[in-house]
Amino acid sequence: MEENKNRRPHARRNVEKSASNDAVAKKAADSSDAGAKPAETVFEVVDFSNDNAKTRLTEAQPKAELKTPVRQKKEKENKSSGALGGIIKALLYMTLVLVLSIGIAYTIIEVANDVFAFVKSDEAVQVEIPEKADVNDIADILGDADVIKYPGLFKLYAKISNEDSVDDEGNSVFIPGTYMVSPMLNYMQLLSAFKKQYTREVVWVTFPEGTTVDDMITILTEEYGISTREDFVKTINEYDFDFDFLEGLDELDGRYYRLEGYLFPDTYQFYTDSSAVTVVYRMLQNFETKLKYVGGGKLDERLNELGMTLDEVVTLASIIEKEVKYPVDYDQVSSVFYNRLADKANFPRLESDATTVYAIQMETGVRPAELGAAELAFDSPYNTRSSRGLPPGAITNPGYEALYCAFYPAKTDYYYFVADKTGYNLYATTLAAHNRNKAQVQSEAGN
Predict the structure, then answer these.
(1) Which of 130, 150, 180, 416 is surrounded by the most beta carbons within 10 Å?
(2) pLDDT tens column, 62-102
(3) Number of domains present in the structure of the chain
């Protein structure tokens, strides 16, 4: 009896389970008839002897149909708060960068202003420099006086600039004493303010038209103490100056000075410690400028018309310069020499006394006081009394008038000229007329 009682409840649960399963199956069939996907029915078989065991029916649903509205709301809230946080972080970062940039820029400006003294007080400050002071002492003194703001930077600047505190003999380069200095001085000026000041002496040197290279060297070296004769001679004869008009003058070719005729006579301002190269370069630059004025942009065309090279015209200009005292005679004397060069059969020699004087002076070192038969016959390619045509090079440095008239001579039929006692020239076409002019000059000189 007790055994049957114990089994009936189990049978009832089984019947109830079966009825429930029938209901589920019927619902699934109805869903299938309606065209919907039948739900999957899962039976769990349990041991009926276990009172706690149950048969579970689970209806599986697709994952896409699962909804978690609470979770989505949290995700949206998280995204909103995350975006706001990102903006705040970006603003903080930008603010930090801006603050740092301003700070760095300010520091750079302050340092630069201290080093270069862009905007500082112009009120002079008195400082005392002791004996045997070095750069570190100078920096501390200037810092204490508020002349500079960064003494350490001043010391570093002096070190980078190779500013020594002592000279070659071990003595301090800073002269002790009381100084008035302005904060407007930059670091370099402050480093120099307490040293022995070296001032370059400036001199004005004037070379008259017709000054020879030899005389120029004497004036520069002996009168003004600029460089040495040896340096000038070497520079004039050997230095490679980059000027187009010097092409072809690489060698002396029988010349006494390679650049004779090209060192333009003028008034110049030189430092007494200038090098020979600097001085000669300045004078060549001046010659180049004057040559452009003379040529007017058609220098080569004019040389072709004359049938001469530039060096030949410069050489002729130097002879004209020495033979003329007054500007009115430049183009007339030029015409005489051009007429002789054009008629070499009848006038093989230029017969310029100036060339004879130059030849003798350069060979002997002595300028002849007068020209006698021996002097006129002096054997030298520069002596146009004894040599044919033009000399090897210029005999002096011509000025602008002589240079211009060498390019543009007057149109005359003169072949002779002689200077009277006033310095003006008398011209003649024939030898007979020339002899009469000479007689007249001698007569006037005797009176």
Answers:
(1) 416
(2) 544 445 455 555 555 566 666 777 788 788 878 888 888 78
(3) 3
Would residue 422 count as lying in a domain?
A: no
Res. 23 pLDDT band, cuts 50 70 90? very low
**389 and 345 part of one domain:** yes
CA distance 268 to 265: 9
CA distance 261 to 395: 7
Q: Could you tell me if 362 and 263 lie in one domain?
A: yes
Orientation angle between helical segments 400-407 and 310-323, nearest 10 degrees: 120
- CB-based contact 221:275 (threshold 8 Å): no
Q: How many CA atoms lie within 13 A of 66 on its CB side?
A: 6
334: containing domain: 213-414
Helix (H) / strand (E) containing 21: helix 2-33
Q: Are residues 257 and 400 in the same domain?
A: yes
**For 314-350, how does the pLDDT look when each residue is reduced to its tens digit (9 = 90+)?**
999 999 999 999 999 999 999 999 999 999 999 999 9
**Residue 393 corresponds to which amino acid?**
G
In a domain, 442, yes or no: no
CATH code at position 177: 3.30.1490.480
Residue 54 shares a structural domain with residue 152: no
404's tokens: 């211009």
What values do phi and psi take at 135, rounded to 5? -60, -40
Q: How far apart are the first and last CA of the chain?
A: 193
As a whole number of angstroms, the distance between CA 62 and CA 40 comes to 11
Residue given tokens 């270069």 in the structure block: 116
Per-residue pLDDT reduced to its tens digit, 167-219: 766 788 898 988 888 888 888 888 888 887 666 789 999 999 999 999 999 99
Q: What is the pTM of this model?
A: 0.60
Q: End of a domain among 198, 223, 257?
A: 198
Q: State whether 12 and 48 are in the same domain.
A: yes
The answer to whether residue 401 sits within a structural domain is: yes
H-helix segments, 222-275: 229-238
363 contact partners, CB below 8 Å, separation of at least 6: 378, 380
